[in-house]
Amino acid sequence: MSLLTHLTDLTGRVFAELGLEPAHGVVVRSQRPDLAQFQCNGAMTAARETGRPAAELAEAVAGRLREHPEIVSATTAGPGFVNIDVADDALGLWSERSRADPHLGFDAATTPMTVVVDYAGPNVAKAMHVGHLRATIIGDSLARQFAFAGHKVIRDPHFGDWGFQMGLLIAALAEERPDLPFLRPDLETYPAESPVTLEDLQRIYPEASERARSDEEFAQRAREVTVVLQQGDHPGYRALWRHMKRVSEGSQRADFAALGVNFDLWYGESDVHDRIDSMVERLKTQGVAVESEGALVVDVGLPDDKREWPPLILESRTGGYLYSTTDLATIDMRVSELGAELILYVVDRRQSDHFTQVFRAARKGGIAPPEVRLEHIEFGTMNGPDGKPFKTRAGGVVSLGDVIRLITGAARSRLDEAHLAEEYPDPERQSIATQVGIAALKFGDLINNRSSDYVFDLDRFSSFEGKTGPYLQYAAVRIKSILRLAAERQIPAGAIAAPMLEVERDLMLALLGFGEALQRSLDLRAPNHLADYAFGVAGEFNRFYDECHILSEEDPTRRGSWMALAVWTLGTLERALQLLGIEVPERM
Ligand code: ARG
Fold it and tell me: Best exposed site among 120, 172, 318, 329 by fewest CB in 10 Å?
């Protein structure tokens, strides 16, 4: 249990004793740390409910709280706030308890859920680009947090491997290399060697996609090829498709590995193909799927809509299944086979209409029963310095591999500038530079509220100063080196004692806030709260360490307590960073 939960329980009981609703006894960290450590604002709500003056209720609550030995001061302020300070003894005891807790005072979920996190979502034939970067970074962090909170997490990238882009690729290849054996439906076997490289795919796809915009005949051919591929009676197309998929996934897996991101399932749109026919039949029988202008659609409008919602297209006029169709069938699979209770779609904001349509159709067709939660975790754009979506100088799409190379290069120069890791063996320096680069990239993203756009700023992200990943890594590494020195001098950690100095008190309060910060990050699906929290902890530790010279302190009890605070700070920082997907080097 966290100190905050404990204070909330305590205050809730006081509300109950006064005949008020205990749920109003919520205690939060004070918005004015100069005035108090904690505050409760519930007297105002209770006043509205009972018609009694808020100031009077606040005074009654404060009076009862003051009787409690753990509370050193409870006063009222403003229209009915209660300001609370915890006694130093209690702070010491709570600190001692929290630091030993594997969850660091976080209240793990009492009813674990099965949570599917759908993120990253790269497409066959397209190298992962910066658009997929945010999805990957935010999705990975949320997956880590839900797992830490005790939920069963299933991470699935939902590869884009079954839609129109496959038809486009095959149609374009057929034109360019008409004698490819894969174009014939009637061979016994097909070459085991891929006829295309990643570079081929990355050239062909944008060309084909551009051409389909103006060349209707070509577009129609691509749609027909998509249908033939999906229906499965052309083994050549299927063999070619498998090659293209393997070639792209190879490069995507390398990008994920570089980012330290992993998945439990490596499913794509195509993996639900076998469920589509029966799902479509069901929707037809229910009258949910209807014919419209030759296509099969689901109306998703609702009576209270303020805008027109175009229907979701299940089957195109040509007979092909679309992005929405595979998404619906994927919900079906996740609910019925994986037992999903919450599905988080960490996908660009620009797809919000798509998800509204899919979710509405899933409810309407009973594919997602009411108790299953479907959420689009949308996010803004990562922009270049010009404020427009990040592009290469030539205006092209920047691949994820390029971004990683850029940021690692920047990290290396920063290390050199700061004379860090200078005398280490080269492989170690390289691996530190990579860890610092990835931290710069991830933290630079996660520190922003996910719904805002932000500017990719190589210099700022990779700096060892300010709200950056490298700053936090350095803070953690510095504590590691203090602890190494302490070990050499055989200085042990002891029990955390009641704080005597303001900097001790502040550090304890910051560390005791871990559970609250993580809970907010989870509730709002917004890792920036955790990122901000980690930054705050690093700052409190610096202030503490400026005043409390752990290694030279002579009083063994104080020294032991300070050592324990340092160990706890390191554990908290490392945990917060791990939940953000950031590694901490051993030394720097
Ligand atoms: N492949 C898609 C894209 O690149 C993202 C997939 C998101 N997930 C989903 N279930 N639709 O835009």
Answer: 318
